[in-house]
Amino acid sequence: MSTEAVTSLAAHFAAHAERAPDAPALIWDGQATSYGELRSMAESAFIEHDLASLPADRPIGIRAKKSPEAIALILACLQSGRPFLLPSIELAADTLAKLFAQAGVSTVLSPTGPRSDSAASLRALVDAPQTESIDARPSEWPPAGGAEGVTFMLTTSGSTGLPKIVPLREEGIDAFTDWAANQFGIGAGTVVANYAPLNFDLCLLDIWTTLKHRGTVLMVDQDRATQSPYLSALINDNGVNVLQAVPMLYRLLIDVNRAGGDTFPTVRHVITTGDKMPATSLAELPTLFPGARCYNVYGCTETNDSLMHEFLGLADGNVPSNIPVGQPLPGVTARVQNEDGTPLEGTGTGELLVWTPFQTHGYLKAELNAERFTAVDGEERPFYRTGDIVRRHDDGTLTLEGRADFYVKVRGVRVSTQVVEQAIQEHPEVVEVGVMAIEDELAGKRLCAVVRKEPDSTLNSLKLRQHCMTRLARTEMPSKITIVTEPLPKTSTGKVDRKAITAELERTHS
Amino acid sequence: MDDETAKIKGFIVEEFMPDISVDELESDFDLLTGGVVDSLGLLKFVAWMEDEFDITIDESELGPDSFRTVTAIKEFVDNARAGG
To answer: Which pTM value belongs to this model?
Structure first.
């Protein structure tokens, strides 16, 4: 293999393969791949893709679905010290081509092998637009802060425009994987479930921390990620110890528990992340995982995990309806800021800013940085603006209020359309809701709610207003409530398409 | 329900809550807390009342409670008529 300087992650992995070649590294589709086998696969990938001949100062593009071969290919890149861009395979071909061009990749690789059945079709997809266009488009490589130490390059899941490329440095990944291993007891023999797709930052915990610390990664097949019986059997048959996932997985497991009484006694650490965990799901966790400590972890691709809250006393009915974002991880600094950039003193709401030892030095496209990375008083390091509005309570706890993007000014008052949507959604006969601020010539902006009710419901705007009166401030009450029975327009990711509804409302507004 | 109360309810329903029937709107429903009538709606409302009931409303006399419920609006109209 390469004689170039290897990354810490690759060096740790190589040491495990040397000392414990038979220890299981991955479990995929009922089959274990040992550390020794995985090392051989990485060496094969290195030779087959001729990584040694690729320019050392340019990134590699990787288009891969989750598989042991894909992990071997990433290990080969880590081993050769070459940065790589790992975008979502779900992205459109044109978007992918733009991202690979922006990263200035020398080539785009997909894993090969019997268990990468989709590899050929994936290559066909990227090869066509990629080969002629890569050099023609302007690349942003190298990053403004220099290319040194950059390994993983992940992308944000931005709902609008091109996803942003986030270069991560070895130093940050090293610090993160060590924190995670220590916090969740990941070491030799620990079985860690990997539920997220391969390109998610969550994999830095469940795949890469595990491989660095000689654990076993149980890889969940993305194509079966919503099949409750498959998931339940997988967790129990393999004795999973650490489970990190979005709330959806826990809802699926709760279904299995209700249907067949399955519990998951081997799990020691349950981590919820990425989305708001409903209180009803939280309350079920002690039943599902009788031997586990439960946490909510807050983070994003740019900073990785930054705050964590451990749920204590869930089994005794101590279920918070509004989940605290928690305490900063060791070495992390968190700050709550008013709109004018001054720190929030005492109780109230403001935007959450964080600095973490794991964070990127900035987006690859440097012009995007000013909006998100900012200097704060008394701190030398740039803080990341999370875009999340948090509330600081009397006891100092922080809870999420919503995205800053959802705040609108209605008659001079800041209102979160998310808060309004949540209140409306709490009505049992509401299926879904979108709340938007619509431009009005006279009033500036007015809040409009479009609500889909259950088919047999007698809900009307008056009943909904009565429901909201105890939940919302007057300024948060929508001026106009439209109740429908047909589904609301959706975005490609299945969320209510507020932009489409806004356009429709503005068109019909007299 | 007297005619004027019915007219007031009819206007509110038609203008602000077209999906409900007049009978569903209680005379003591809090229109302000319920967000039925906002400041823009109030302007329309005042214009309509002046027209409909042939009264002159001095906007400086309008307190938040004058329009809180249908009952309050009816009282306001009666007072405006008596005073004018």
So the answer is: 0.75
